[in-house]
Amino acid sequence: MVARRKNTGRGFVGVFAAVACASLFAAGCFGFGIASAGSAGADATSFGLGGTSDAVVLQVSDAPTQAAAPAVSEGLAIQSGAQRDVSQGYQEIEAEEEAARIAAEQERIAKEKACLQQVADAKAAYLARYGSLPVADVDFSMGRDAFIAEWTDRINDYLAGFPLAGHGETFATAAWDYGVDPRWSPAISNTESTRGSVCFSPYNAWGWGQSAWSDWDSAIRAHVKGLANGYGYTISYANAMKYCPPNYDNWYRDTRNEMGKI
Q1: Residue ranges per domain, the chain?
Q2: What angle do CA 149, 183, 163 make, to 5 degrees?
Q3: What is the annotated signal peptide range for this record (predicted)?
Q4: Cβ-based burial of 128 (10 A; exposed 0-12, middle 13-18, buried ≥19)
Q5: For site-directed labelling of 157, which of 12, 52, 187, 232 has its Cα 20 to 30 A away?
Q6: Distance CA 216, CA 198 (A)
Q7: Sign of the C-alpha dihedral computed for residues 172, 230, 128 and 109 taken in this order
Q8: Is the pLDDT of residue 154 over 60?
């Protein structure tokens, strides 16, 4: 009876010892875990991670996953909206360009009609005063582009080999713009200076007062404009008397003959 109690006591002591060892072992493992975590933090610091704990790392890696889906969806919505806006913008641009083209064409037609009317008025005034044209008539009804193209070639042929060579387009364009015979100014340049060969003032091929210019194109336009404003549509005997009083008879004959060559 006594021996059994002793054995029982020993059993209880053994159980207690086992529990104590288990507790100590668990405590040791827990401490080891804390030490390990601390060690890992120290190692992380040594690799430049700033001692970030596992919990923080998990938190950082979880955040983008939660925000990724809305970001992609929002990006698609923006892209889709941008595509719709660009398409609408292209349509508006095309409409504006078409409106501008139509407006420019209407302006061109209006200017052409005004020029033709100017020429008609100038011819009518000339015929009312002198009765007939001294040289063959010029056809302005072909339109601006065709008129300039035709007379550019004819005037350039006439000026070839002289200082005014190559400026036929300027003569033709000025004649259209100011409504005068396109042959008149080039012919006067021959009578006055042999087509720019002998000019008493810079770029003044027409004996035009005391005028001087910096280039041929400016001079041509100024002379043609002066003819339109001061003399009318084309050459006449009265215009010769006004243009060259000392020698108007020869001036008229020579200039008219040169106009017939163009």
Answers
A1: 116-259
A2: 85
A3: 1-26
A4: exposed
A5: 232
A6: 14
A7: positive
A8: yes
Q: How many other CB atoms are there within 10 angstroms of residue 52's CB atom?
A: 13
Position 6 scores a pLDDT of: 44
Which pTM does this prediction carry? 0.64
- The overall longest dimension of the chain from CA atoms, in Å, is 173
- Please name the residue that has the structure tokens 């969806």: 73
Residue type, 191: T
- Closest alpha carbon to 247 in 207, 218, 214, 217: 207
CA–chain centroid gap for 65, Å, is 47
Helix (H) or strand (E) segment spanning residue 16: helix 2-46
Return the CATH class of domain 116-259: mainly alpha
The SS3 call for residue 139 is coil
Residue 11: pLDDT band with limits 50, 70, 90? very low
Summarize pLDDT for 46-90 with one digit per residue, the tens.
Answer: 333 344 444 444 444 455 545 555 555 666 555 555 555 667 788
Determine the distance from the C-alpha atom of residue 189 to the mean position of all C-alpha atoms in its chain, rounded to a whole number. Answer: 40
What are the CA-CA distances from residue 60 to residues 38, 39, 49, 64, 102 (Å)?
20, 21, 13, 7, 62
What lies within 8 Å, CB to CB, of 256 at 6+ separation is 134, 135, 187, 235
Tokens (6 digits) for 110: 């209006």
First to last CA, the chain: 157
Number of residues assigned to the chain: 262
3-state SS of 202-231?
CCCCCCCCCCCCCCHHHHHHHHHHHHHHHC
Q: How far apart are CA 175 and CA 58, in angstroms?
A: 87
CB of 215 within 8 A of CB of 202?
no
